[in-house]
Amino acid sequence: MRDEKPKRAWFQVHLSTLVALMFVAGVLMWANTRPNELLGIWGGGFDIKYYGKGWPIRDVYWGDGPGIRLVKSAQGGYQTQSSHEVFEEFLSSHPTAPRFSGWKTIALNVWFAFFILAAVALPLEYLARRRERNQAP
């Protein structure tokens, strides 16, 4: 009677495949969270910078210096205004300005990451199982 190893279940993967997936996942996380990339400066008296983050689909978000700024009021004095209020005012007065596209972009980036991980895992696991079969007595 032969001393055969039990067949590996379909969901079991080799340690070498998991190590490779760990490195690929690290690169994907770095690509999605790397420092902001300045996409442009929107003028018109505001000079607000907008940035992109994410990979492969970059999403837009706004940012500009300190969180509070002084704004000349209609009465002639100054009032404080948060960056959020400034951006809301800016976006309402500039309908063509780039905007955050939300969960759709995040979902597409996550789907793309899973596709890349599967494209790496399947061939590596196939090669490891084939090598394991060929070494069997």
Task: Tell me briefly what this model is.
The protein has 137 residues and is α+β, with helices and mostly antiparallel strands.
What does this structure look like?
The protein is α+β, with helices and mostly antiparallel strands. It has one domain. 46% of the residues lie in helices and 20% in strands. It has helices spanning 15-33, 83-93, 103-135; strands at residues 37-42, 48-53, 59-63, 68-72, 78-82. The strands form two sheets. The chain has a three-stranded antiparallel β-sheet, with no helix packed on it. Strands 4-5 form a two-stranded antiparallel ribbon. A hairpin with a 5-residue loop joins β1 (37-42) and β2. The longest helix has 33 residues, at 103-135. The two termini are 13 Å apart.
Secondary-structure element string: HEEEEEHH
Radius of gyration: 26 Å
Strand composition percent: 15-25%
Oligomer: single chain
Let me know the average pLDDT: 75
> N- to C-terminal separation?
13 Å
Number of helices: 3
Biggest β-sheet strands, sense, barrel:
3 strands, antiparallel
Strand order of the largest sheet: 1-2-3
Query: Low-confidence runs (pLDDT<50, min 5 residues)?
Result: none
Structural class: alpha+beta
| Morphology call | rod-shaped
Number of domains: 1
How many extended strands? Answer: 5
